[in-house]
Structures are given as C-alpha cells and as structure tokens.
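hiii, so i know i said id send this last week but things got crazy w the move. better late than never?? heres the sequnce for the chain we talked about at the cafe, plus the structure i predicted for it. fair warning i was half asleep when i ran it
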Amino acid sequence: MNRRILAPVALMVAAGASAALHQAKGTLEPPIEPGSHAFHKVAINPASDFEAACAADIDGDRALDIVSGDTWYQAPAWTPHRFREISVWGRGPGSSGYRGSFAELPLDVNGDRRVDIVSSDYATGEVFWHENPGPEAGGLWARHLIAKPGSAETSVLAPLAGRATRDVLPNVAGKVVWYELRDPGPNHRWVEHVVGTQGAGHGIGHGDVDGDGRTDLVTPTGWWRNIDARADRWEWRPEFACKPGDLGISTPVHDFDGDGDNDIVFGSGHNYGLYWLRNLGGGKWEQLPIDTTASQFHALSLVRLDRRGEPVVLTGKRYLAHDHDPGAEEPLSLLAYRYDRRAGGWRKQVIDAGTTVGTGLLLGTADMRRTGRLDVIAPGKSGLYLFENLGVAPKPAR
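okay and structure toks below
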C-alpha cells in the first residue's frame, strides 16, 4: 500500500468552559470538551487498509466480533479469519487506491440466525451480501448480488420502512434509491425503491427531519419527506443547499439546540469543515460552521456514548479520501462533538489525533464489553482500531 508519513499534531486544550468559538487563521474551532469520555485504544490490525467496519456476533458465541474488509476478527483476542476476496483498484504511483468493499452491514438475510454481511462497491456499482455458513464451515463465504444501482460512496442501514426495519441505503450518485429485505429466510426478496433523482449526489443521510416519527432522507440540496416509504410515497423539499456541497456519509438529525425542531449536521467529505443546518422553522434553514480546522469529514454518526449522556456527533478525518483533496495529508483524527445548550455552542472531544487513526467510510459503534457504554471501531486505509469507552474521565483538580 502507498502509505504516507502523517505529520505530528499539537492538541489544543481550551482553558475554561467558554462557549465562544476559537478563531485563528480564518478557521473556526469549538473549545475542547472538559470532563469528556476516556478511551483505551486497541490496534486490531494496523496493516488493514479497508475503510468500513462493523460489530457482529459472527460465530454465535454471544460475543461481538469485528468485521472489516476480507476478515472478521474473533473476540476477545481478535483472532483474524479471512472469509472473502476483496479487490484492489485505482492504486498506482501517486494514488493510494481503494478496496472493493465500501460498507460492512450486519444483517441476517436468509433467516438462519447467523449474521451475514451486506456490502457495496464503488467500482462495480454493485450492492451484494456474503452468506455466513457458520463457524464449523470455514473457507470463503458465498457472495450474492442484490442489485447494481451504480457507483456508491458507501451504504448504511436505515429504518425507512418502519422503526423495526433495517433497510439498505446506498449513496448512489445518479439517484436516491434504497433496498428493502422482505421475508428474511430461504425465499427472501430484495425490493428496490427508487425515490427520485432530486438531491442525488455526493452524500446521503437519514433521520426524522420533521418530527412525525418517520425516517426521512437528507441530500446535499434538500430532503425527502417520508410519507409512506414502503409504498414509494415521498415529498421532495429543496429547502437548503449544503456548502461546499460534497456531503459526508450520514447526516445526524437531532434537536441539538433544544428549540423543539430537528437540526442537521453534515461534513464535507472532500473539502474542509463540519457544519450544521439550524432549523429555523417554516422550511427555513441556516448553515453554521462547527469546525473548519480539518478536511474530509466523510463518515458521521449520531450516538450516545453512554446510557445517560447527551448524543454526540462522532466523526473525524478520513485518510486520503482522495489523494489530492484539500488537506489530504494533514493529521488524522477521531472526534466527538456535543452541543452545549446552556452555553449555546458546540464542544469538541479529541478521542485520537496525530496518529494513524482515521475514520474511513463507515465507523462502527457497539457495546463490545457490555458496560452500558458504546465503544468505537475506526477503520481506514491506515489501519483498524478499537476504542474501548472507559466512561467519563474525572475532571482535573483545580
């Protein structure tokens, strides 16, 4: 693999709890979160160059394993097991290239109570799944084609057909489309739902934008209101246009400022900045910067790091999303952002920075050790890492 030396980074520690944004050299950065969660970093495979990962009980022993690329790592020792062939493309002089797996989605497709893995590949334009044969079988898993909708940056699971569903949502450049798994079992069916072409582009997200209990779709140039997804009834709302326009994958939707309506957070996948769309009501939105000190915020998740805490936006810098993006070779990071309603501003937690940890295409989160706290799985071209959540760190003595 064409790896590059990552420049060292000096972490900024904000003094006090001021809500004012730090501003220097034309950039905006929120203050560092005091008393935030502590993490223990585990190097699962520093040589891995796959950019998506998930947690799943692959062998049925009730312990969560880690899946990334052509390998699943068996808990608790993270023993590697190669289970499929993954191609390499675009690699050459001056280009780090990509691997032919842009998503890792755990789903029991055939109803045999074993977790299968749904994936997608940008080069072939395919969405597919690999069938888990069980721990005794060994060898490579059978590959099954779902559809060929076109090149997708990645795919995510989203409850579009109802809160209890796990539908496959790829980010296809030419259309907004999703796949519903009906009748999981030997006679399962994949149903393709084409929402439309409006909003199709770089990046897709989902969440309940209007607060009606249904999961809507967020695009770079507006959102699709979910009227009845299973019956293909959607309403296009071109109410905003994200700048610079290349949305990262997933756009956390939540009432961050507590004013009663849901806002949207998005990152620039191939340029600088993390931003939020503040919902002003009546179909009006205001785009505001959260952090413009880094580029390639390509993967985002809205998570609660523990059972009692406020949700945070988990993201960071992807390693070489494109080799020549603005800031492509600047230091990597894994970050969490929280909106402080009392102070009226965002806080930033640095989970990791200045090492070989990046965020890849798809972050994984799960309570790997049954502590009641979410751990973080960070894949990327520069390695695969697990961050064990140790809980809220004690505040430093004054």
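btw Confidence is low (pLDDT under 50) at residues 1-25. thought thatd interest u
miss u guys!!
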